[in-house]
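At this stage, I wrote out one protein, both as residues and as discrete backbone shape codes, and that material follows here.
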Amino acid sequence: MGLPEIILEGTAFERGLTYGKRFGKEIRAFLADDFARVNLLRNQQLTEAKIRTLCEMYGAVTLEEIPSIYEEIKGLAKGAEIELYEAILLQYRREIINYQEPASDAEDCSTIAQLGGSPSFIGQTIDLNGNMANLGTMLRIKGDKNCPEILMYTFMGLLGYLGMNDRGLAIGINMVLSKDWQVGISPYLLVRKLLEFSSVEACLGQIKTLCRSSSRSLTIMDRESLVNVEMTANKVKVTESDSVLHTNHYLNPAIVSEDCINIFSKNSSIKRLEFMKDFLSKNEGMVAPTALFDMFSSHFLYPVGICAHAEGNIKRSETVASVVMLPREGRFYARKGYACEGITKEFLLGTVPCGTSI
């Protein structure tokens, strides 16, 4: 359950190649487990031929919309000694898991962010089904001289998820559910693309330009502003504030009608939101990373809630990691596995890999 860190440098293809070589054994084992556990999480099984066809569709739009990341996917395939469609599958698992089986139970990710406090931060739990905790990893991405250095928490074989860069931009992500999922760019790869920018304004422009595959909520912070972006595949609503609290239901009145979350998941989502609101009000702007990890460890709705436990059910979401990002300070704290049990490691932008335990 250690948290490995890997540096990706050079051209897009070279970055993917390095990634694939480093985790090739783990990636091949993951893919061999019912197509990266896709069929373990679906009700209706997909054939290899159907998965290949879906991956080719997602690959085509990736090539068209974000060609540099497509080159990384090609490098990943070569480095890991897998087929190209398998490398694409690793980027679009969630979309393929829910192909013709729309989800109504959102993962239990909980995000809290504050601008202008002491310090400014984005913190969140990462909740997923499919026994994903052991695949967690840190990427340190260094492109050419015009691109920022990026620190990202993700899962072996996945090129995007959440993170921050050395220009003071940080992005968190939560699941929200809408009915308009389609072939487009995965929100995970979207976040990766956005982390090439320096400002919230530039990110919003890119979000509105790219064809998106599915719904998410993004919390985006730069040095001057903080926004929550609630998306369906085809709609975007932005709320700017000095603080953001988000779980798994839509909050902006202009988009709440799109919500497809079931009543049981929504009740949990509402309770977690209120719990974090109470936490933030009690701390009055002075929130240390240690206090956030303590809050993320809460079992007040056990086995669901802030720190969620699947109790051996592969189809049920559980907390697989929690992170706190301090973009102004270039500090990224990550705890792999359950928030109540893990060891927190600190990663610094602009340094050699450290992963210091704290």
User: Anything to note?
Assistant: Residues 283 and 291 are 9 Å apart (CA to CA). The longest strand covers residues 318-326. Residues 5-97 form a domain with the Arc Repressor Mutant, subunit A fold (CATH 1.10.10.2120). The first helix runs from residue 12 to 22.
